[in-house]
Amino acid sequence: MAEMESWEWPPRYDADYRPPLGQAHWFPVRETMDPELRDEAILERIRQLMAYAWERAPFYRKKWSQAGLEPGDITSLEAFEHVPVIRKEELRLDQAEYQPYGSYLCVDPIDVTHIKGTSGTTGRPTTFGINQLDWVSVANAHARVMWAMGIRPEDVVLIGSPLTQYWGSWGAYSGAERLGAAVFPFGAGVAGQSLRTLQWMRQMSATVFYGTPSYALRLAEVAVENDIDPRRLGLRKMFFSGEPGASVPAIRQRIIDAFDVEVYDSGSMAEVAPWMSLGAASNEPGVFTWQDLVYTEVCDPATTKRVPYGSEGTPVYTTLERTSQPMIRLLSNDLTRWEAPDASRGRTYPFLPKGVYGRIDDMFQIRGENIQPSAIDDVVMSAEGYGGEHRIVITREGTMDELLVQVEFDAQRTTVTQDVWVKKVGANLRTVLGVGAKVVAVAPATFERTDFKARRVIDDRKLFDSLEKEAQ
What we know:
Blueprint: H1 28-32, H2 35-56, H3 58-66, H4 77-80, H5 88-97, E1 112-117, E2 127-131, H6 132-148, E3 156-159, H7 167-178, E4 182-184, H8 193-203, E5 208-211, H9 213-225, E6 237-240, H10 249-259, E7 262-265, E8 278-279, E9 287-289, E10 294-299, E11 312-319, E12 328-331, E13 334-337, E14 351-352, E15 358-359, E16 364-366, E17 369-371, H11 373-381, E18 386-397, E19 400-409, H12 418-433, E20 438-442, E21 457-459, H13 461-471
Parallel strand pairs: 3-4, 3-5, 5-6, 6-7, 18-21, 19-20
Antiparallel strand pairs: 1-2, 8-9, 9-14, 10-11, 11-12, 11-13, 13-15, 16-17, 18-19
Helix pairs in contact: 6-7, 8-9, 9-10, 10-11, 11-12
Domain AMP-dependent synthetase/ligase: 107-313
Protein name: AMP-binding protein
Organism: Mycolicibacterium gadium
């Protein structure tokens, strides 16, 4: 098996280790080694992890037994593709039966030292029970990725997302703390907080910001409204997760233009920590899949088998360092496209050039065309005259689904008339989407802004369906 830095099971890290300041990689061997040699080590780790879960987690033992599999059957990464995926709904149901952490908890509940979870806004919240060993491993993993982004001990990192059960905030916090930076957990979501965020950012000379792309754009608006130049705040880097955007060209460019910063994308899903195992390492769109932290397969959603490099699929995640609630082939239902490892990028991990750009659940169909909201975002947000927000309304006229895009229009940001602007945006949408969309210009500040994740899609077809049922 290939030699890799700090590659043990269970994971053990030197708490005093930090790379020399001039070193680009936290772990140079692990991050730049031959991918095939790394895969050999990953296969052995998967076998160790599966044996560990088989012994300790009734959830996995039952699921694999029903599929006719045992850990010893996994003799290759190709064989690993036959391990059945797990879905978030399965985890929720298991936790409802085996409260509070589910029968996939692999440690004594008394060893749980940190509790995180989902919001539960669409059903029973999922609880994440983390022991201290995993907390340390997650901090080390996030520190590695943040180091790759160029974040250093002299930085002041402002956390601009809710300090609640949301994993993203705490992962960024623990990672920044581990690499030795000063961490300012300011949070987000309280009325009037955006202006105070900017004031504290300036007062404390923050150099790095973490949050969602939507909130960064909101901060830029609030800054201008209060005669603050966001380009003079002193930020040098901003990194994001929680929603598509940092790898969507138009959104990314708006952030760069507003703050004069480098932009880094990251993020997978709440159940997967370290979630920054999908993380950028250069000031460009896209993220690496840090395979020695979380083994990521981009799979066909129907077969859950890996798709070839260059193809689109859904990520399937296996955490390689989690001992409390390991995720083994967790199906994300997100969408991405991956490329083969390329040493010229500075690291030999597979690469997602557009990051994670949508969810299968969010994709909708208009007259036979599959449409991702992020594709609409990219078109309208790149238009001169864009007023800062928009809404995507899917409606039904007669028996035909229709796509309506309401876009804030700011005449001061363009030299063309509103009518010409609407026609141009509509034509660009048709080119990108393959179907027509009715574009309606509305006044700036029409739509509510967000301090967290944007919710721009409104599906009015459900209203029509309910009215039809009532009529019957």
